Amino acid sequence: MSFPPGQTPDVQPSRLTETFDFTQLSPPADAVDMLLLDTAAAWWEQGHPREGVLILDDRSGALTLPVLDALISEAGKPGAACAAVEDAVSAVHVVQDELGAELGLQRNARRYELPAPVPAELPSLTEVHPEAFTGVHTVLMHLPRSLETLADWAWLIREHAAADVVVLAGGRDKHMNHSMNQVLEKNFTDVSAGRGRSKSRILTARSPRSDVPAAEPRTQAHQIGIPGAAPTDLTLCSMGATYGGTKLDPGTRLLLQTAEAQAEFPGAEEAVDFGSGNGTVSAFLTLRHPELHVIATDHSASAVQSTRLTAAANGVADQIEAMRDDALSTLPDSSAELILLNPPFHQGNAVDPAAANRLIRAAARVLAPGGRLYCVYNSHLKHRSVLTREIGPTQQLARDARFTVTVSTAS
């Protein structure tokens, strides 16, 4: 059945939400997950193709696993070949920006004894035929808070999905705004808001536009001044989900200016840019020190792409090795002489030192004896005691109204 523009199927509780046991999921499913699943089921019951499902940034598997379970149950009826089950799994594509979400989905899949889809890499905006996006008929996703992220997702879908694609983007009413509709409307001619349920709502986008200009990574030029030296020109690049976009973070600026003023800096042939974001630290260090090799790590696939783009834009790609990693998990113990870190100070909207403490402990494991961690953090936070306890003697190098810069030496 084809629905006229602006109309969508009636949404009721479906098999996807009524027969799947959500109690084992960690983190648990929320109202947006349930409404997205029921909305997808409503489209499929009206004849929209079930194959070619793309799920974006599923934080726990709450969207992916019920869809997989239903497809496998249908494919695995008595007399069905194993190939039919494999086809059901291959019909679902999953792309996640954060490595933690990707690992969480895999853990939950094991709990349910379901074969999780092989995670697809986040495609670049210039990739010709990204496998996860090409030819998909249904897209399920939580609305990201960043409009830049939504713009990148929408363009990739518009550019590569099937002509009949139905994009279902869900969010909590309090987090939704009309700008989200406007971003979708730049890529689709038919964007409509569904009926609310449990303080949640779905935006449905259909009919990809044919007159949308090619998307490009965002770029911005900056300059970092160093006392007694010529300023360093820096071009920062960003994909949508990268924290801070193309901005030069003021704490990172202070960290770099302070570190460069130290007589012993860098004092190593290799440095680790821990949480590389848009690649500010990596590009600046390699521009200032052409002999330096930098390992740039971030848990965000978007940030890794942004770091690589920034490295290329500044002509230092050969000196920077960017990798997606969770808390330096791929680096050996006692292997680094120099690490630079600007840790997060919040989880979601709440100030929470737990994330920073976890990264400091990771740095302590990776630092070689005598290795140094240069760290910048919000001055009101009490990280110095944690740095001293986990790493070793910690010296304050700079402090202003907002930020503190320290150097810790591994014992």
UniProtKB/TrEMBL annotation:
The keyword Nucleotide-binding does not apply. Its EC number is 2.1.1.172. Residues 29-206 form the RlmG N-terminal domain. Gene3D superfamilies: Vaccinia Virus protein VP39. SUPFAM superfamilies: S-adenosyl-L-methionine-dependent methyltransferases. It comes from the Bacteria. This is 16S rRNA (Guanine1207-N2)-methyltransferase.
